[in-house]
Amino acid sequence: MNSMRTLLTKLATHPLALLVLFVVVFFGAPYLRGATLQILSFALVSILFTQSINVLTGMAGQISLGHAAFFGIGAYGSAIIAKTFGLNLFLTIPVAAVVSSLIAYLLSYPAGRVKEVYLAMMTLGFGQIFLEVAREWTDLTGGVMGLSGVPSAGLGTLIILGHKFSTIDYFRVLLLITACSMIFIRNFSQSRLGRSLFVMHYSELAAGSVGIARRQTKQLAYALSGLLAGISGGFYAHLVGYLGPESFAISRSIEVLVVAIVGGLWSSAGQVISAIFFTFLPEQLQLFAEYQFIAYGLILTFTLILFRQGIGGLLFLPPRFIRQAWLTTAVEQQRQATAANSQTNEPQFLKIQTVSADIKVQEITMRFGGLVALNSVSLDIQAGHITALVGPNGSGKSTLVNIIAGVFPPTSGQVFLQGSDVTAQADVEMAKKGVVRTFQDPRLVPHFTVRENIMLGAHAMMHYTWLEAGLSMPRVRLQEAQALEQCNEILQLLDIEAVADQAVESLPYGYRRMTELGRALLARPKIILLDEPAAGLSDVEMTRLAEILVKLKHLGITVLLIEHHMDFLTGLVDEVVVLDSGSIIFKGDMLGMRQDPKVIAAYLGDDEVQHA
Ligand code: ADP
Ligand code: MG
After folding, report:
1. Residues 26-45: what's their mean pLDDT?
2. Cα angle at 532 between 526 and 536, to 5 degrees?
3. How much distance in Å is there from the Cα of 535 to the middle of ligand 2?
4. How many Cβ atoms sit within 10 Å of the Cβ of residue 283?
5. pLDDT at residue 221 is higher than 70
6. What is the whole-number distance in angstroms between the Cα of residue 390 and the centre of ligand 2?
7. Is the CB of residue 441 below 6 angstroms from any atom belonging to ligand 1?
8. What is the DSSP letter of 603?
9. Which of 398, 529, 532, 578 to mutate to test the pocket of ligand 1 (most atoms within 8 A of CB)?
10. Given its phi and psi angles, is residue 605 left (phi above 0), alpha (psi -120 to 50 degrees) or beta?
11. How far is the CA of 94 from the centre of ligand 1 (A)?
């Protein structure tokens, strides 16, 4: 089973195999029956449309139940411009697609603020509004009577630069556009921006913690998705030659989701197969046209029960989100660099060049409704030190980390980073200033490998745009290879190279913690805030973690560490701060803490004293 998957994956990703397939279809088109060619053209439109939902829902996790609207904007837009101004589709489709993209971009503002059911309802509403406009704006869309006379190859009315476009010409153009957009999306998905869409899907907090701007990332997902939907809609319009509002009803929005899910979210190859299947299926089910959606429902249900990952998961290995060739370049670069330098086993790129950073927290109070989680807490996290924050569960440790990291603003009080006031600055900003944190419960993209997850940390260090990513411009390779090289150094530091290419969801807890630490490190922290990094680790892993923390200190990184294991902290930390019920009850060194009567009473208890 697995060897078959490997083989099929090799075929489906092999450039030569894909080129051969393309050439065969391209030059084989004239030998197909007219009806078959027509259905294949519909399948290509469906593949394009599926790519669009794949970007928004598959990658970024933003449910859309109104996606037919963007398809419709592309279709009506291109048809209306073509009819009104007599322009050809090489102009009208791009214009319509840009309009669709712009509207999607605008929708991202309200939609980006809501999640799950609310998002589903909002997009559903958007789809319905579009449908009503298409029905009622009779002058523009022809209303319920529809818009006929759209220049179309099938009707022989599509004339481009004096050349009459045949259905074969049209099919070939469509094939070319579909192939190009699939290459574009694949390049995009293997870039910092593609990966950033996935992290939005699983944890917006994790995104913010490494400087991935949430709103911009959603805007990108919507705009790119709208663009692709617009292109597919445009090609649909000139394929059928007639547009009626019913073609853009909710059933089409549902259909594209079904195609994407049955194909396997984020599996392009699976989705191609699924799109072709669902285009041919209704033809075969002509007799049962009324039951078409029952068939869809049954297929979807069985897919979800039998193979969650869809056709893609059944036939192919999971797609990867890092380009193998760039990894090879990175490994080569690293080999040369280590040959030239002496091996220190400390990633030198992490070294703090100027003075280490300190944080001053002044009279921070945090209330959640009536609950006072922090009560006028003041403390200094000294530059270049390891400071431990300890205290019973619920004493406010995580809350303090959240406030320093900018997850939420304090009710009152101030936070200073290297002397400048950073109170209430957003987590994304704090990450860019070098304050990076990990979470008490690791927040990772489960189907990403360890390496892919760590690479999320390099997002803000790379600067290429979505267009460069999709076109795979030289700057992308340069920056990705450098980030991958640094990622390798971190994998070595954390001693997790052996599992680098395994999906984190299949790994034990300790590796996930290490992966999250790696992601934070690749974001080049000046100050790292670790929320219970040793929880759930084995003794061996804890020893390794202590060694790593010492190395980070050598590099000049300031560390704040929340931890419960006293033995782990002894000999490791420079200062310890004890919180109890939102107030600081002790500041000093480990020895002093273990002998402090208040700490013993509130936190350590008698066992610990005997132990010490
Ligand atoms: P610790 O990390 O020390 O175990 P926390 O900082 O997580 O403690 O929690 C401190 C107190 O604040 C707890 O009573 C907790 O229930 C409450 N709390 C923490 N975060 C929130 C939140 N987002 N909303 C409401 N209450 C919260
Ligand atoms: Mg906590």
Report:
1. 93
2. 130
3. 11
4. 12
5. yes
6. 10
7. no
8. I
9. 398
10. left
11. 51
Nearest residue by C-alpha to atom 21 in ligand 1: 368
Q: How far is the CA of 321 from the centre of ligand 2 (A)?
A: 32
Q: Where exactly are the structural domains of the chain? A: 2-315, 322-350+449-522, 351-434+525-612
Which residues are near ligand 2, the ion (C-beta closer than 5 Å)?
397-398, 440
- Ligand 1 binding pocket includes 397 (Cβ within 6 Å): yes
Q: Is 368 in the pocket of ligand 1 (CB under 6 A)?
A: yes
578 vs 594: CA distance, rounded Å: 11
Residue 192 phi, psi (nearest 5)? -60, -35
Ligand 1: centre distance to CA 394 (Å): 6
Residue 282, token pair as written in the block: 């209704």
Residue 393 CA: nearest ligand 1 atom is: 4
* Architecture in CATH for domain 2-315: Orthogonal Bundle (1.10)
Q: What would the mean pLDDT of 178-193 be, rounded to a whole number? A: 96
CA distance readout (Å), 24 to 17, 153, 169, 180 = 11, 22, 15, 16
State in Å: Cα 552 to ligand 1 middle.
Answer: 28
Query: Where does residue 536 fall: left (phi above 0), alpha (psi -120 to 50 degrees), or beta otherwise?
Result: left
Beta carbons of 520 and 457 less than 8 angstroms apart = yes
Ligand nearest to the CA of 579: 1
Identify which ligand lies nearest to the alpha carbon of 377. 1
Q: Which residues contact 174 (CB under 8 A, 6 or more apart)?
A: 41, 44, 45, 235, 239
What is the distance between the alpha carbons of residues 435 and 431, in angstroms, rounded to a whole number? Answer: 5
Residue nearest (by alpha carbon) to ligand 1 atom 5: 396
Does residue 229 carry a pLDDT above 60?
yes
State residue 484 phi and psi, 5-degree precision: -65, -35
What's the whole-number mean pLDDT along residues 484-512? 95
Nearest Cα to 225, choosing from 269, 259, 203, 256? Answer: 256
Tell which residue, 507, 511, 483, 485, has the closest CA to residue 496. Answer: 511
Q: Give the residue among 79, 76, 70, 77 at the shortest CA–CA distance from 127.
A: 70
* CATH superfamily for domain 351-434+525-612: P-loop containing nucleotide triphosphate hydrolases (3.40.50.300)
- Specify the length of the chain in residues: 612
Q: How far apart are CA 273 and CA 311, in angstroms?
A: 8
What's 362-386 look like in SS3?
EEEEEEECCEEEEEEEEEEECCCCE
Note the pLDDT of residue 610.
41
- List the Cα angle 179/60/312 in 5-degree steps: 50
pLDDT for residue 611 is more than 50: no
Check if 402 has its Cβ closer than 6 Å to any atom of ligand 1. no
At residue 94, the pLDDT reads 97
DSSP string, 56-117: IIIIT----S-THHHHHHHHHHHHHHHHHH---HHHHHHHHHHHHHHHHHHHHHHHTT--HH
pLDDT, tens digit (0-9, with 9 covering 90-100), for 58-109: 999 999 999 999 999 999 999 999 999 988 999 999 999 999 999 999 999 9
User: How far, in Å, CA of 267 to CA of 305, rounded?
Assistant: 18
Residue 159 near residue 165, CB atoms below 8 Å: yes
Rounded distance between C-alpha atoms, residue 594 and residue 567, angstroms: 11
